[in-house]
## 1
Amino acid sequence: MKPAEFQYHKPATVADAVRLLHELGDGAKVIAGGQSLLPIMNLRLAEPSHLVDITGIPELRRSEAVGSAGHYGAATTHMMVEDGLVPDVTGGLLAHAAGGIGYRTIRTRGTLGGSLAHADSSAEWPTVMSAVDAVVTAASVRGTRRIPVRKLLFGFFTTALEPDELIISVEVPAFSSDVRWALHKTARKPGEFAESMAVVLRRPAGSELWLGAARDTPVRLGTTETAVHTRPAADIPLAELVEAVAADTHCEGHTLQLHAVTVQRALRAAEREETHA
Ligand SMILES: Cc1cc2nc3c(=O)[nH]c(=O)nc-3n(C[C@H](O)[C@H](O)[C@H](O)COP(=O)(O)OP(=O)(O)OC[C@H]3O[C@@H](n4cnc5c(N)ncnc54)[C@H](O)[C@@H]3O)c2cc1C
């Protein structure tokens, strides 16, 4: 199918983009990589009358590490992160996550800001950016505001953004040298969205665990973190993980088993990282 008719705008500055979004109102949509929006438009599940293309705004492609954080322009593509064209303040977690998103063609166009604004809990960036406690900056004609990703994501395809707000950057706190990370994605085949995705951040004081694709937003596995604490992964029986993940997610049956195994594999991978450090 083809999308319904729309008018195309390509502003060169953030100020022009937010002015357009404000003036054009509810009928306008931001387009970045188009990797989520265009399929939806082709199916006529969305019929915006105006598209505001943000890929011609140089500021949104700029990234830098300043002090104890990495600042990533919203139009940074998954490929730029995967290929190390931007600094990775997490010691490789961001590049690893980016490399697992869809196929290479999708990664050359899809963007960090687009993925967060789309808010699909089985996508990489919502779970990873929740785990690392990233903060987005959103701009509108009213000015800018900072929103932690953990508060940005309201539910499936739903965020705290106003219709005329534009994510302009994502700030990621740098990992200290004692953090070990792992991300395990369970998908039917490479290039597909996750059926389960666990991120482990292991520190000497204990592990922080996040799970994607389990509920409509990424879930922090508090009960599982307490059960795991600093224990070696090999000492934690799968049955114990199943029980803890059930308490955290309220999942059942096959789905629960899938998530528990994904968490177990992520814990083992984090431990391997620790051994190699
Ligand atoms: C076949 C296929 C497989 C895929 N597999 C995966 C996968 O395994 N993992 C994964 O994470 N993703 C996957 N994706 C999605 C892909 O990563 C998209 O690139 C991403 O979800 C959206 O980014 P985008 O830049 O293309 O956004 P767009 O499609 O341009 O926009 C998506 C939404 O975000 C809004 N938006 C975009 N940028 C901004 C902004 N800066 N501020 C405010 N709103 C904005 C748009 O208005 C729209 O509502 C897949 C996509 C396809 C087609």
## 2
Amino acid sequence: MITLSSSTKKQREIPYSKSPSLIQQISFVLDPITYLETEVVRLGEVFWAYAPMRAIIAASPEAIRQVFAKGDDTFGIVDNASAKFILGGEGSIGLVSGEEHIRQRQVLGPAFRGEHLKACSELVCQVTRGLLNGKRKIVMEEVAQTVSVASILSLTFGSIEGERYQMIAREFTSQIEIIESPLKALQLFVPLLRFFSGSWGKWQRSRKIFFEEVAAETRERRQAGMSDRGDILSLLIKEGEPDNRIYSQVMTLLYAGRESTAYTLAWILYWVCTMPIVRHKLLAEIDSGEDYMSLPYLDAVIKEALRIYPPAFIFGPRVTKVPFKLLDWELEPGTVVFPCPYLIHHRKEIYPEPKTFRPERFLERQFTPYEYLPFGGGHRTCIAMALALFELKLAIGTILSEYNVELADKRPVRAVRRGAVLGPERYELLVERR
Ligand code: HEM
């Protein structure tokens, strides 16, 4: 039995917008940043929104601290049919909770540590060079996505040599295209639209091939007794995971990792090209010959890129299972809360001039895990944070030490919704060997 203190307010007293819910939903889908920034100014750091479901947006470090401090006893996962569909079933690490979630993190965790990352490093440099060599003009995000998929596949399968891995990468890429376009993605929610769309059939075919290839690889490894290679597939086989869960996990890692890392890399090169002082400082460090992993300015540039436009600009919805006190408000069970790192990262009192790209802020002071949270927090923190940072450092170091890069078009690049995440508009780079 919960007794409300005199300072506790009911959840219906949380500020909310008077705009019609449909308008809010459309604004959130089409231009989430303008929507969230407008509402936070009007309503304050905790407010009701339609994003696109009715939910509380938490944009205060203290509110985030309170949410992250609680586990699955307090917050559950919103049952999301389209996420299950995209990720190939219910077994994905992103969709399970409680004991099963802890177990899956324990199974997958070792693959994202130490020696496995090192094994991936040569590959990242090799793939990056292969994509840039001999080219004059490149679409930055395509290069970044290819590097990102190669590193995830290498960690998952232990290798990317051979037709099978290329096929898996190709079929995954063609599946993700449907999520990228808001109009095509509507088919996930409105099944009737699938009858009128050629892309649906294409998507289904891609999924089938992707699944068959992952299944064939799993079968061959099981038959050959290959379960001790340390890659993710081997770990899952060793754990006795069924095929459908293996498929779902591989799909989840690709979805979770490809865009976020690729867009961050694309942003960093954009900032380098538009800010001569950043380029100058970064090159001085990279050309020093020190290990890329120990360069403070490079680290600060990556942190600042993830601050200003965190790909996961809003985290997955958490739904209260029990009454929960958020700041002064008593939330009822069944209330959906979205922690919003984008709004936290743009608070002026934490980050003066928040719209300015200024890596030095990360050299001047430390931020708490509730002030700076591009990789999430609590028990759902990104499992691949070390991999993502490692890969970004290697890719930037390789590109800037070996090539001169310039924007092909000097127009500013905006941050836009790219599927479920935030990314730069597509842009081109001119590349030339240094
Ligand atoms: C710059 C790159 C990345 C960023 C900014 C990022 C960000 C995040 C964030 C914010 C979360 C938590 C979401 C939430 O709490 O709702 C998360 C979870 C996750 N990320 Fe990442 N991520 C990145 C790269 C990757 C990569 C490369 C992979 C896989 C290879 C990956 C796999 C995952 C998985 C599996 C989860 C779910 C963890 C769980 O539920 O326990 N991420 N990521």
